[in-house]
Structures are given as C-alpha cells and as structure tokens.
Amino acid sequence: MSNTMPGTAPTHQTYSELQQAYDHFNEALFDGKLPHCLLTLQREKRTMGYFSAARFASLEGATTDEIAINPSYFAVVPLVETMQTLVHEMAHLWQQHFGQPGRGRYHNEQWAQKMESIGLMPSSTGQPGGKRTGDMMADYPVAGGRFLVACESLLTSDFSLSWYDRFPAEEHVQLGQNTVSAQLVGVMGASAPIKDNPALAGAVRPGGPSRKPIAEVAVGEVPSAPEAAPNKSNRIKYTCGGCPKLSVWGRPNLNIVCGDCGSRFVALN
Predict the structure, then answer these.
(1) Could you give the angle at the alpha carbon of 231 between the alpha carbons of 225 and 237, nearest 5°?
(2) Is the sign of the CA dihedral 29, 15, 108, 242 positive or negative?
(3) What is the helix (H) or strand (E) element at residue 12, kind and residue range?
(4) What is the pLDDT of residues 160-178, one digit of tens each?
(5) What is the pLDDT of residue 260?
C-alpha cells in the first residue's frame, strides 16, 4: 500500500525536479547549448553519478545520452553536493558534443578547464589539493564562482527534491559530513536535508530498515554494522591512508595502492 498523499505522483515529481535543475544549469552555465538527455536514478556503489553517451535509443532509431544520479546520497549530503553531481555530468555531456572526451573514464584537461570555468574545481579527493585530472574525479565549489551563483538562484526559486532514499549506506553519511559543500557558510543548500527536516531525519535509517533512524544518531557518529570476521585466520585488514572508510582483507605484507587517491593501504593488525 502506498503512503503517498492522494493525487501525488512521486515519479513525476522526482523527475520533473531533476529536469528543472538540468534546464536551469544548462541556461546558467552552458548558455543553453546542451541537448536534451535522459535523466535516470541509479544506485551505483561508490558513485554519485555518471554520464553515458548515446545510451538510449527510440523506436525511430534516434539516440540520447544518459545522466544518472545516485539517490542513495540525496538525504545525507548537502543539496549543493547533489547539484554538483548533476553539473559534473553535464560537463561530460558538453564535452561529448562540443569537445574531445578522454579515453574510457579519464577526466582530461579539457574537462577540467570546463569545470573550472563554470565554478567547480576538479579534485581527485573532492578536497583542495587533489589532482585535477584522472579516472576517478570529484570536485568542490569555487567560492563566489558561477556554480554557486547559479545554485543559489535555483534554490531561491522554491526548488527542492521531494523524495529521498531512506536507507543510505554508512559511508554516504560520512561523506555528507566531510564534503567541502557542508563547510560552506551562508550558502543555501549547504547542509544535508536530514539536518534541515526533522521528519526526514526520523525516516532515514542508514544501513537498512533494522537500524535506528538518523535522528537518534549522535552528532559526528556514523552508524556501523558489526564487521564480519575474515574467513581465513592468516588474513589481515588493510585501510587506505587517504580513504579511511575503504578497507580490504589480504595476506600479510601486501603492498597495496588505492586507485582512487593514490595512498597506500596500511595494515591494522
């Protein structure tokens, strides 16, 4: 049985809001030149969004690009961060039609320059000082830049996201606490929706329906499930020095480097 109010359509509501944001940033940051695409919601592990060129075809044989956004993050990262993800993928769409994309997943210098020009600083870590190009890239807003100006204009027009995934992963909560966007002062949408809406905080349960709601989690606490024991007595745990939530199990004396941030994994026992 649905818990929605009579007359509401969550699908129409959700995708209309994403389309509104796409159209707004297309005009504000890309001079309205980006073609239409198909916006989708996809739960991809450790990915807030992605771009896929000419991914869909119509009955007439026409094709359109896809921009996918991961709704698992919506409730626990700042709304500014979710809009960053959309614009990040829009920059890939721009490059697909008006530039030269890098091979595979590589974010090249042209993409990095475009991102900077629209007010988002490319960073392999999502923090100042990260690499500007690479396979796995994040970004953060430039203070006073075009993206934040456009974002504020959108958020002051009564824009919002109406529906949120109730069961984000614990690492999504951690990201929401540590993102650069969450440290912005005096910027609309710089706090996670669960911090602004008590009803949402009472409904969201990081880790699954059996866990306690985020409203009952202490500030700074990240709810975590009991960690499974390794299946071999001679295996030990390694944690990435740059991504503290990323761990692996392996034999002793392994020499492992993180493909995301370039840091070495450190043995914990």
Answers:
(1) 65
(2) positive
(3) helix 10-30
(4) 999 999 999 999 999 998 9
(5) 73
